[in-house]
């Protein structure tokens, strides 16, 4: 089956601009062009776009997707461990980001809990004071030698 760009985008619930972007990034190629210049795509391109969209949805970067596509296109030159390594690196990054977000959440919890809220003027806001103190502490810290 062949698809025009809009048909493929609609079939996989993405925008035409997204499809063009992936083409510019050399992640996807049109199967050809019609006599009037329209791009068209075959089922292989549809599967590749679906792969890209799923990989993006689980957090892989464009460069990681490029690596995965290269392995997918040339599976005999690679092993499952190559794919696992890419996924493992991504998982480690996600876990590190989650730890950082947890630190941020705890800090926000503290300053929100310390604030009485209400109709006090903002000059008396404990959240603004806490952020001001944090900024001052960062400014006065000695650089590590």
TrEMBL record:
Q: List, alphabetically, the PROSITE patterns matched.
A: HTH_MERR_1, HTH_MERR_2
Q: Which Pfam families does this entry report, sorted A to Z?
A: MerR, MerR-DNA-bind
Q: List, for all copies, the residue spans of the domain called HTH merR-type.
A: 2-71
Alphabetical list of InterPro entries matching this protein: DNA-bd_dom_put_sf, MerR-type_HTH_dom, MerR_fam, Tscrpt_reg_MerR_DNA-bd
On the tree of life, the source organism's domain of life is Bacteria
Which SMART domains does the record cross-reference, listed alphabetically? HTH_MERR
- State the CDD domains in the record: HTH_HMRTR
Keywords in alphabetical order: Coiled coil, DNA-binding, Transcription, Transcription regulation
What name is this protein filed under? Zn(2+)-responsive transcriptional regulator
**Species of the source:** Spongiibacter pelagi
